[in-house]
Amino acid sequence: MAEKIDPDAARALWTAVLARAVDDYLYGGTNKESRAHKKDAKAWMACKEYQGVGSFTYVCQAIDLEPDAVIDRLRKKEDG
Q: Distance between CA 5 and CA 33 in Å, rounded?
């Protein structure tokens, strides 16, 4: 018998995933490894081909956020 997934735990997990990606996306320093994480976060958020489990679209939808709105807000924060 499969175990039941706690929706609050799943939401907390996907929230943590997105929070890490946001931190990486907004990184403004010069550390080479952190700059690579920034590049990866931007690529993950820009990918529209895959929308399954773990994709940016999936993560946003799992925590009731609109993916395009998240990206728009990040771009404004990055520019501003």
A: 34
